[in-house]
């Protein structure tokens, strides 16, 4: 039985409760920007960004990004959120690096770069899912991590960031998304790993990153961008994984919000003939991580008005096809998504050619201890259009803004602390 069929079987019990949206998102820009952890500054390592074109060096949570953005690189016009992850480089035997290109996930259309974003609600089936409030943002994972967190069914977070080695017999088989290694939900295949796969994967490597889905109901962000959110209580179901977990939200974080999941498909096939013959694992995350344990992702909410709530209440296709929710959402064409781009603002090469070092100052650090920042870094630290200092001190100033949540969760006002 395939996962989809398994999920469909399950859904008979709770058909009216489960909502899924699965959005192809093309690349908006790739550069050293990270407005959550490094607002106003050039960030230490490269990220790929998708979503609304109001993405910027600084993103004040009091701004309404659904109004500021004029386009989105994601499938749904109402969604001006921003989504970002690190990128992967291939390290050639001659010591130089080149960005690993990405290819579309199955059944997302002809996206250009980027990744797939999922919004999943309805699990546990009878708990209401509230859309995120305006000003909400969060992060998952840690760029300095270099040691494996052992997967345990009792520890939901240990399934949050995984890699899958795609090894299909026949990629042209229309069933290929649903066979072989894809029989299992993310993290649950015996072939899924927390670190990079240790062999060449003929059909590429798929990253899955799953955000926590229980909110404290008050903070739109926290200084670590994490502690306002936790995963539902365990254990993780070995058949349904985190995404269909039936765990409830703990009393400290009682508000169920959509489960946001990113999937990135790294196309390693251009490097087939250059794959190291000595067994060296040649993939390196842009944060100087050759292990994969430091995979991380960020989210800034930016849906128009109550459109996400409407989608979570009404988009019931189990495979998350946005076309089947076009009564409620405006579905963009591939061309419309792919045309939404943001100009690069940092004058350095990050992709398309072999480079002698990873952009920023990211010498490979293989751990297992946490990676440390490089001192005396001379990497480009200003944007082309305006001056932005790169600094080793992460937090220089704290602003506190107040944002009225737009979600219907009965919280009077949420206070957001952000750093700039
Ligand atoms: C980015 O921020 C700068 C400085 O605040 C501003 O001038 C510019 O208009 C912003 N760009 C976008 C796309 O919002
Ligand atoms: C490393 O190998 C790549 C791929 O063959 C080549 O394009 C690049 O010029 C080489 N760089 C050096 C420094 O040898
Ligand atoms: C694990 O990978 C091997 C080698 O590609 C494959 O033969 C096997 O079917 C995979 N197992 C699962 C459960 O995906
Ligand atoms: C939730 O899942 C666990 C483990 O899969 C199962 O034992 C339990 O009965 C489920 N609870 C509900 C309420 O469905």
UniProtKB/TrEMBL annotation:
Highest taxon of source: Eukaryota
Domain DUF1996: 34-303
Stored InterPro entries: DUF1996 (IPR018535)
PANTHER family assigned: DOMAIN PROTEIN, PUTATIVE (AFU_ORTHOLOGUE AFUA_6G11970)-RELATED, PTHR43662
A Pfam family recorded for this sequence: DUF1996
UniProt protein name: WSC domain-containing protein
Keywords, comma-separated and alphabetical: Signal
Signal peptide: 1-19
């Amino acid at each position: 039985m395939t996962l989809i069929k398994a999920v469909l079987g399950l859904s008979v019990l709770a058909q009216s409760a489960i909502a899924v949206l699965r959005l192809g998102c093309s690349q908006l820009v790739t550069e050293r920007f990270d407005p959550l952890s490094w607002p106003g500054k050039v960030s230490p390592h490269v990220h790929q960004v998708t979503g609304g074109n109001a993405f910027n060096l600084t993103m004040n949570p009091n701004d309404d990004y659904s109004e500021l953005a004029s386009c989105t690189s994601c499938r749904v016009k109402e969604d001006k959120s921003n989504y970002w992850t690190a990128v992967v480089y291939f390290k050639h035997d001659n010591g130089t690096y080149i960005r690993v290109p990405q290819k579309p996930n199955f059944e997302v259309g002809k996206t250009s770069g980027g990744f797939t974003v999922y919004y999943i609600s309805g699990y546990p089936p009878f708990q209401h899912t509230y859309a995120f409030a305006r000003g909400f943002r969060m992060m998952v994972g840690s760029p300095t991590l270099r040691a494996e967190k052992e997967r345990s069914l009792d520890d939901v977070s240990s399934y949050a960031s995984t890699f899958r080695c795609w090894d299909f017999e026949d990629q042209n088989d229309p069933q290929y998304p649903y066979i072989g290694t894809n029989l299992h939900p993310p993290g649950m295949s015996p072939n899924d790993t927390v670190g990079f796969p240790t062999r060449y994967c003929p059909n590429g490597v798929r990253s899955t990153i799953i955000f926590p889905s229980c909110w404290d109901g008050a903070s739109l962000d926290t200084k670590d961008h994490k502690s306002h959110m936790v995963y539902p209580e365990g254990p993780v179901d070995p058949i349904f994984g985190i995404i269909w977990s039936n765990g409830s939200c703990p009393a400290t974080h009682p508000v169920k919000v959509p489960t946001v999941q990113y999937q990135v498909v790294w196309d390693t096939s251009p490097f087939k003939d250059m794959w190291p013959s000595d067994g060296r694992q040649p993939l390196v995350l842009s944060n100087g991580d050759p292990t994969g344990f430091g995979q991380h992702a960020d989210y800034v909410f930016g849906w128009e008005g109550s459109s996400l709530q409407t989608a979570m209440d009404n988009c019931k296709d189990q495979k998350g096809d946005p076309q089947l929710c076009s009564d409620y959402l405006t579905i963009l064409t591939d061309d419309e998504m792919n045309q939404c781009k943001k100009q690069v603002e940092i004058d350095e090469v990050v992709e398309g050619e072999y480079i002698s070092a990873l952009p920023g100052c990211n010498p490979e650090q293989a751990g297992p201890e946490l990676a440390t920042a490089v001192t005396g870094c001379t990497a480009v630290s200003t944007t082309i259009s305006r001056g932005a200092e790169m600094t080793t001190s992460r937090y220089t100033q704290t602003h506190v803004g107040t944002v009225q949540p737009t979600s219907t969760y009965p919280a009077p006002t949420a206070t957001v602390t952000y750093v700039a």
